[in-house]
Amino acid sequence: MTAHLTQKENFLRVARGEMPEYVPVSTFGRPGAAPLMTMADPCILGSFRGPEGGKDPWGVTFVTNAETNFAALPKPNDFILTDVTKWRDVIKAPDYSGFDWEAAAKKDREKFVQDPENTAFVISGYADLFQQFIGFMGFTEGLCAIYEEKEEVEELLDYMLEHSLYITKNVIHYYKPDGYYLLDDSASKLHPFISPELFEELFVPRYKKCLDIARDAGLPIFYHNCGRCEDLMPSMVEIGVGVWDPAQVENDLVAVKKKFGRKLAINGGFELNVPITWPVIDEEEVRQAVRDTFVKLAPNGGYIFSGMLKTLDRADPKVMEVNGWIADEALKLSKTVYK
């Protein structure tokens, strides 16, 4: 098939719930290839998610290490809020008075988008209310507080939401992105951290206030939630989420696709476990696994292929070779599915 749309145009078709010319394939992990999209944190938030860690705008300390491939995580046992009923004495909203939004937008666009013809500029509105709350208190105390002091938690979430709304309004106005990104992991590998009912009560209405701003601007909405979170997706689709990233294989993705069709694009759907025979691995079996994924998830649109070998040792030559097989097979299939 001869493709007429650019990678970016085709990708945004999927994000808007339209039928693409071909299956978008994430170029994550392929050196020199333009990514389908950025997931850009605006520079007003600082660099705490970078490899050096640091403090986020609320004062939570983030640390990194080699074992997590230098992903930044809240510093263990160094939580700034120990009693949720005392949050008014501890939690103070960031002060951004005098911040130059126009200069920041120009700087961030240059930083995150090297190929604007092929990469969609998708910006975060910092609406990660669940992660931020857990960052304040840690999982044990935070989850207990949600169940034991729900009214206090709701008031704190409303206070945090004002910050998210401020960031969202300004990034959409000044950055003029191609899409809006909500990153808020609220599930483990097996289950959500809270019940779907409580999620819908505490978080969904507050997310909606941010997403409404993006929807009013005509932007497709991307939602990052790892693990088995399919139980949370219906309410998120209802408030405007159009792309689930990464949709991991712990979820019944075939059922999700059947339920939502192109209304919710599945970005992911492929993970390859390291075999017990490693580093011996059969190339044809790897390629067949990619083909099987396309058969299950690609028909009728609403799918973005993304995935690789499940390991953090991505610089290992054998890992790079296997990920190369995966990307190569996916790119071959990409142009053939919708002939």
From TrEMBL:
Matching SUPFAM superfamilies: UROD/MetE-like
Protein name (record): Methylcobalamin:coenzyme M methyltransferase
Record's keyword annotation contains Isomerase: no
Keyword field: Methyltransferase, Transferase
PANTHER family (UniProt xref): METHYLCOBAMIDE:COM METHYLTRANSFERASE MTBA (PTHR47099)
Sample GO molecular function, one term: uroporphyrinogen decarboxylase activity
Uroporphyrinogen decarboxylase (URO-D) domain boundaries: 138-306
GO biological process: methylation; porphyrin-containing compound biosynthetic process
Species the sequence originates in: Oxobacter pfennigii
Higher taxonomy: Bacteria, Bacillati, Bacillota, Clostridia, Eubacteriales
